[in-house]
Amino acid sequence: xxxxxxxxxxxxxxxxxxxxxxxxxxxxxxxxxxxxxxxxxxxxxxxxxxxxxxxxxxxxxxxxxxxxxxxxxxxxxxxxxxxxxxxxxxxxxxxxxxxxxxxxxxxxxxxxxxxxxxxxxxxxxxxxxxxxxxxxxxxxxxxxxxxxxxxxxxxxxxxxxxxxxxxxxxxxxxxxxxxxxxxxxxxxxxxxxxxxxxxxxxxxxxxxxxxxxxxxxxxxxxxxxxxxxxxxxxxxxxxxxxxxxxxxxxxxxxxxxxxxxxxxxxxxxxxxxxxxxxxxxxxxxxxxxxxxxxxxxxxxxxxxxxxxxxxxxxxxxxxxxxxxxxxxxxxxxxxxxxxxxxxxxxxxxxxxxxxxxxxxxxxxxxxxxxxxxxxxxxxxxxxxxxxxxxxxxxxxxxxxxxxxxxxxxxxxxxxxxxxxxxxxxxxxxxxxxxxxxxxxxxxxxxxxxxxxxxxxxxxxxxxxxxxxxxxxxxxxxxxxxxxxxxxxxxxxxxxxxxxxxxxxxxxxxxxxxxxxxxxxxxxxxxxxxxxxxxxxxxxxxxxxxxxxxxxxxxxxxxxxxxxxxxxxxxxxxxxxxxxxxxxxxxxxxxxxxxxxxxxxxxxxxxxxxxxxxxxxxxxxxxxxxxxxxxxxxxxxxxxxxxxxxxxxxxxxxxxxxxxxxxxxxxxxxxxxxxxxxxxxxxxxxxxxxxxxxxxxxxxxxxxxxxxxxxxxxxxxxxxxxxxxxxxxxxxxxxxxxxxxxxxxxxxxxxxxxxxxxxxxxxxxxxxxxxxxxxxxxxxxxxxxxxxxxxxxxxxxxxxxxxxxxx
Length: 806
Fold this sequence. Notes:
Blueprint: E1 10-15, E2 32-35, H1 41-45, E3 57-65, E4 72-76, E5 83-87, E6 90-95, E7 102-106, E8 112-119, H2 122-126, E9 172-176, E10 180-190, E11 193-212, E12 215-231, E13 248-254, E14 257-264, E15 269-272, E16 279-282, E17 285-287, E18 289-294, H3 306-318, E19 323-326, H4 335-344, E20 347-351, H5 363-379, E21 386-390, H6 397-401, H7 412-425, E22 430-432, E23 451-454, H8 466-469, E24 474-478, H9 487-494, H10 504-507, H11 520-532, H12 536-542, H13 544-566, E25 575-578, H14 601-610, E26 613-619, E27 625-631, E28 636-646, E29 649-659, E30 663-668, H15 669-673, E31 690-699, E32 704-711, E33 724-731, E34 734-740, E35 745-752, E36 755-757, E37 762-764, E38 770-776, E39 784-788, E40 795-797
Parallel strand pairs: 18-19, 18-25, 19-20, 20-21, 21-22, 23-24, 24-25
Antiparallel strand pairs: 1-2, 1-3, 3-8, 4-7, 4-9, 5-6, 5-8, 10-11, 11-12, 11-13, 13-14, 15-16, 16-17, 26-27, 27-30, 28-29, 28-31, 31-32, 33-34, 34-38, 35-37, 35-39, 36-38, 39-40
Helix pairs in contact: 3-4, 5-7, 11-13, 12-13, 13-14
């Protein structure tokens, strides 16, 4: 369908709050700027933006030719936040929610349509007196935001120094009025069959049919459609870690012309919350959900090209992550995001856009929420990636932490409005009242009950052992740290690592809870001190890069311990979503990927623990090392090999194993070796016998599938561990890097600018080569170095042999 607004020139001007209320009063002496739609004031003005956009009124205007078309439909996908829409000098609509689209059908168009969007100052609106909530939010200063349907981006300091979004942040389109006014799709599974239900309203009676891939179903001449069709032996949609994410293309034809297209999938979803748990089952199989909270790739414009979304989601998919959570203090994602998640097999947990504020219950507010939910349902109609809808982020935790009794914190939106809507419009999707939320009691702060936000290891400075004792059942948020970007990215963002610590530019990106006397860099320093026994502040004075490396390694240690425990069958945990997947501003934010899309250190730890076939190695003290092989795919067999590295060589032991589909097997190193070894030096009878332990899984052909290595005891920093690195071109743009160390190498980092390594920040056992893949992003040949935390000397990576393409 042709968009008549495609290529239209949008202009933007600022006026004082309330000073201009009619587009005819806009004068030519105003300062006008070119604007991009979809976009925001901050996206248009960039570095020249010297004011808080909320403090002023803003006008977006455009003139568009309608050609010979007399009837057109003008769709405003979303305007932030309160606005008036004028068409040809006539007021046509009032916008009171960032999340609700406005649709205007225009008739008798005169060839050119003048569009003016008057975005009103939200700061001026917040000055009016309105009823207070039952509690005060700790997330934002302006408590009046409880009455506004808007995002917390730019308004909650915890998300970094971002400008507030103001303007048409979603597309504005103009099309010829279609024959179809509304289409709703839903899917269900009955035995081996898939059932697609189609509901649609046509402008006039027409011959309608639905196409599902290559199969057609005729509806005859109709004006309304409310029909279900059956697809025999349907192929189910699976998260990519457990199977094929099969989708079907659907097209609605009216009088032989396609009027609506969509992508649907067939799957069953159930969230088992019995016995205080939260186990997501898809197609009857329990799924361990791993991933993180999603932030907009462009938090200023709030709109991303499809290719950028694809690259970001494919990066998560390649790391074995299978779920993202769209958080209730941010924004709903654009349609392309949902289509890509369905295609790539990435499950989505969607919060309704409620946060820590007490939502009103007046009729106007509730009507806005109904329209918001309706718009969301239209976006995700029959999309198989949608698994869970939550009534918001910390909507119940905030009043609980403030000491309100259970009855005093009840919300009709969470208890009735949202669940009733989900049951009616999004059948087959799981619902939880809030993230977090308890099951067996009314305290939504107990991490061992239902859905948790677990920051025991992290903000609350608990020891790593707390991960095993806390009894987390499902962490919808966890492991928040101020994660430094990799060395090359620090140089690109800040010039050098010398800014790390207290430089204002660096500190601006470090997350901090509003009103706290500490930030998440203090949290990271605490774990550096407790894990490695060094003073991070003294190290920072002498060697800023080493200081950041210790911080990176401490976070990797925490991620490895947490995911390595939670993914075990015996842990009772069914999911872990880290806070967050990506930074919103350059620097040491919560993200495991920086704003440029480059992975940070904990990304690799999360990927190792999240692989569909993963080896988990755990130090159980006097019981030695335990090994668990976790398998999300079909049944497989092979052998587990244990290599014990001693000063006079290594010793290998092997045991044949078979692991069933979507299952795991747990063993101990001692059981594989067959004798007592004290491999982890827990008994401390004399000096350490072994310096490292490597466990590998080999398939029936003897090919290595996965491995993991643990270093025994504390590692002292020394001049050299004998690191060496050799790189050979495999084919154009892809290289193989082989890393070797004479002595145990702690947290080996592959630092090659312009290339992404298949693994990094791992332990390397003595004389045990490790071959990695390097994929180029923009460099012709890899040049850089490999270093280890316990070594001053590092190994240079310089191509020595360049073969022809193969």
